[in-house]
Amino acid sequence: MQFATNLTKTESFPRCNSITGFIGVTSKHSKSKLLLIRTAVKSRALSLNLNSKRSFAVKCVAEQKLQDPQQQKQQEEEATSSLSPIAPDATSIASSIKYHAEFTPLFSPENFELPQAFFATAQSVRDALIINWNATYDYYDKLNVKQAYYLSMEFLQGRALLNAIGNLELTGPYAEALSKLGYRLEDVAWQEPDAALGNGGLGRLASCFLDSLATLNYPAWGYGLRYKYGLFKQRITKDGQEEVAEDWLEMGNPWEIVRNDISYPVKFFGKVVSGSDGKKHWIGGEDVTAVAHDVPIPGYKTKTTINLRLWSTKAASEEFDLYAFNAGKHTEAYEALGNAEKICYILYPGDESTEGKVLRLKQQYTLCSASLQDIIARFEKRSGATVNWEEFPEKVAVQMNDTHPTLCIPELLRILIDIKGLSWKDAWNVTQRTVAYTNHTVLPEALEKWSLDLMQKLLPRHVEIIETIDEELIRTIITEYGTEDSDLLEKKLKEMRILDNVDLPAEFADVLVKSKEAIDIPIEELQTSEHVENGDNDDEEEEEAIAVKDETDESFIEDKKEELPEPVPEPPKLVRMANLCVVSGHAVNGVAEIHSEIVKDEVFNAFYKLWPEKFQNKTNGVTPRRWIRFCNPSLSKIITEWIGTEDWVLNAEKLAELRKFADNEDLQKQWRESKKNNKIKVAAFVKEKTGYSVSPDAMFDIQVKRIHEYKRQLLNILGIVYRYKKMKEMSAVERKANFVPRVCIFGGKAFATYAQAKRIVKFITDVGATVNHDPEIGDLLKVIFVPDYNVSVAELLIPASELSQHISTAGMEASGTSNMKFAMNGCILIGTLDGANVEIREEVGSDNFFLFGAKAHEIAGLRKERAEGKFVPDPRFEEVKEFVRSGVFGPYNYDELIGSLEGNEGFGQADYFLVGKDFPSYIECQEKVDEAYRDQRTWSRMSILNTAGSYKFSSDRTIHEYARDIWNIEPVKLP
Question: Which residue positions does N6-(pyridoxal phosphate)lysine occur at (predicted)?
Answer without folding.
Answer: 821
